[in-house]
Write a structure and sequence with these properties.
- This protein has one domain.
- The longest helix is centred in the last third of the chain and has 29 residues.
- It has nine helices and no strands.
- With about 210 residues, it is mainly α.
- Helix 3 packs across helix 8, helix 4 crosses helix 7 and helix 6 crosses helix 7.
- It is found in: Cell membrane.
- Keywords: Cell membrane, Membrane, Transmembrane, Transmembrane helix.
- It comes from Lacihabitans lacunae.
- Belongs to the DedA family.
- This is DedA family protein.
């Protein structure tokens, strides 16, 4: 039991992941968090930001190009994995009978929502924990056009990695002492993302009711 707790403490600790696991661990976590439904709890935004900071201060001994390329590829492939799982294994959900917690109208409403706001959803979802994991699965479930999905997968992935990794790198270069305030950075990201997720949830719920 202690080993299980230690493992979860490790994968939730972005600083330890970066310092002990290096680029490989970062890539693996980004891949899982971006498309496998059980990875929704993994650190995403602040892992990218801190990897940029650590890269600039040489605590993560990789080039910025390698870091950016690895994370971008992991994000794109992870999202494709979510899309494919939703598209080819979503029949069970589509054929599921209505119950207290599930209604087929939710699927039809979601499909209309993606048809109307699909591009915006996939890009904005990159910056929303939990939503980032389930958005590509839902896009596959409602059979969003693959080429359209691919376009916004690449655009969203690039913007997400560029903003967070690039932002962390630039701040690390200009303010190397930032490395001593890692915990405050994490708390800041948690506060911002929690607020954003809640706001996005209620906004999406209202829009879904109007679709």
């Amino acid at each position: 039991m202690e080993q299980v707790i230690s493992f979860f403490n490790y994968i939730m600790n972005s600083q330890e992941i970066i310092q002990t696991g290096g680029l490989l661990a970062i890539i693996l976590i980004v891949y899982i968090e971006n498309g496998l439904f059980f990875g929704f709890f993994l650190p995403g935004d602040y892992l990218l930001f801190l990897s940029g900071v650590f890269c600039s201060t040489k605590l993560l001994d990789v080039s910025l190009v390698s870091l950016f390329s690895g994370i971008f590829l992991a994000a794109v492939l992870g999202t494709y994995t979510g899309y494919i799982s939703g598209r080819f294994f979503g029949d069970k959900i589509e054929n599921k009978k209505d119950s207290l917690f599930f209604k087929q109208k939710y699927i039809s409403k979601t499909q209309k929502y993606f048809e109307k706001y699909g591009s915006r959803t996939l890009i904005i979802a990159r910056f929303l924990p939990i939503v980032r994991t389930f958005a590509p699965i839902m896009a596959g479930l409602v059979k969003m056009n693959f080429f359209r999905f691919s376009l916004y997968n690449f655009i969203g992935g690039f913007i997400w990695v560029f903003v967070l990794v690039g932002g962390g790198y630039i701040l690390g270069i200009n303010y190397p002492g930032l490395i001593h305030y890692v915990h405050y950075i994490i708390f800041f990201f948690l506060a911002v993302t929690t607020f954003t997720v809640l706001r996005g949830y209620f906004s999406a719920k209202k829009e879904m009711e109007e679709v």
